Amino acid sequence: MGIQEEYRKEAASLLSSGEVKLVIGFGPGTTADRRRAQFARTAEEAEKLVLDQNCIANLTTYLVAGGLLSDGKKVAIFLKPDAIRSLNILISESQVKPEQVVIFGYAIENGEVKELPGRSIGDFANLGEKLRTATPPPSVQQEAEKLEAMSPAERFEYWQDQFSKCIKCYACRQACPMCYCRRCIVDVNQPQWVSTSSHTLGNFEWNIVRAFHLAGRCAACGACDRACPVNIPLRLINYRMGKEVKEAFDYYAGESSDQKPVLASFNQDDPETFIL
Amino acid sequence: MSESFEPKIVAFVCTYCTYAGADLAGTSRLKYAPNVRIVRLPCTGRISPMFILKALQKGADSVLVSGCHPGDCHFAAGNYHARRRWTVFRALLAFTGIPEERIHFSWVSAAEGAKFADLINDITEKTRKIGPFTQYQELQKVIETQSSY
Amino acid sequence: MTRILLKNKLDDCIAAWQKAGYSVLAPVQRHDMSSFDEVQKGADMALDLILPERTIKDQFFPQTEPLIKYNISKKEIASETMTPPEKKRVFFGVRPCDASGLAIDDPLFGWDYKDDYWFKRRENSVIVSIACTEADDFCMCTSVKLSPDSTKGSDVMLRPLANSNGWQVEAVSDRGTALLESVSSLLEESSDEAAPVPEVAPKFDVEKVMEWLGDKENFESQFWKDISVRCIGCGSCTFLCPTCHCFDIQDEGDTYQGIRRKNWDSCSFALFTMHTSGHNPRNAQSTRWRQRIMHKFNYYRDKFGVNSCSGCGRCTRQCPVDMGITETLQAITNLPR
Question: Does domain B9-143 have CATH number 3.40.50?
Answer without folding.
Answer: yes
